[in-house]
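Figure 2 data, in text form.
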Amino acid sequence: MSGRRRLDWLGLTPEPERELPTAVAALRAPFPAPPSPPPEAPPEAPAGEPATGAPATGEPATAERAAAERRRVERLVLRGSRHGWLRYLAEVTELVTSVAEGSRPGDRAAALLAAEVVLDHHRMLIGLPGAGYGRTAQDRTALENAVRTLRTPDRTGGGR
């Protein structure tokens, strides 16, 4: 093998770069507590502040997490290696399977999206030289099981 860096893994598909950051950020987010019932008579609040004194919606934090995840993916793609990229996807697989198994609370829709994207990526590795396809065999099996589980409604009826 030459001393040149192999970049063939970068040409597989753009979906992981486009779709994973938001889904993974949702999976990494601390699962929100169930909403408390609204007070009977909310007090008046100054403009721009929530009436209950609670923090405003989690949208900025969610957007910040997604931006941070996007930067991480960008660094992996621009300066990383195939090995580093597969390590990242293994980490995503762990998040997805934890949600699917119920050992970690999380957004089932985000987990399903991430599972499908990573599974498609791993299936395409068969067309590349090297051991990537073989290396991801266990992750493919875990992701296939997770996709089946996540496509089935959860016990509370809130799944897809």
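Caption note: The longest helix spans residues 59-79.
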